[in-house]
Amino acid sequence: MDMNEQDPDSLVADHMNIDENVDMIELNLNLNDLVKSATLESIKISLDFIQELKAALLDNGHLAPEVLSWLKNSPSNTIDLTASEQFSLELFFWTHNSPQHVYTSVKKVIEQQYSQSELLSLEKVKQLTVEITGVSPITDDMCINSCIAFTSPYKALSEWPVCGVTVRPKGWGNFTFKVIT
Are 141 and 175 in contact (CB under 8 A)? Predict the structure, then answer.
């Protein structure tokens, strides 16, 4: 280092006016106290999300019983797949970001061209994926404008607080988002 250059650590210390003789005060913040004392709604909601994350357990989530069982008792052996299962999984993985009809259409074309082919239906290949990996979607209602999902602090709301749409429609199933667990 050049004699004219100052050590980066000393630059930071000088800039922050750190006095080495001052004892650091230990901050002991209680999340519950923070939630109660928060005055901005956005901070309250953020703290609510944090509390839910801290309290999250496998047993109090959205997991289907078979997925929960798989996660708690995951297999340690190798899985033997038939050629049809393996091909179906590969097709599913290559088309998973496409609309569902892409998998179904490609499956149909393959089965027409190769009559001995018996590929899994889309639902069965999804089931097989869950059985093999333990990865399954969690579906929650969401705003039709994608501004919020009705989960955690928002799960009991019937109005959309962000975009102003005032009613949560009946037959809500068309407006969902999926999180892969």
Answer: yes
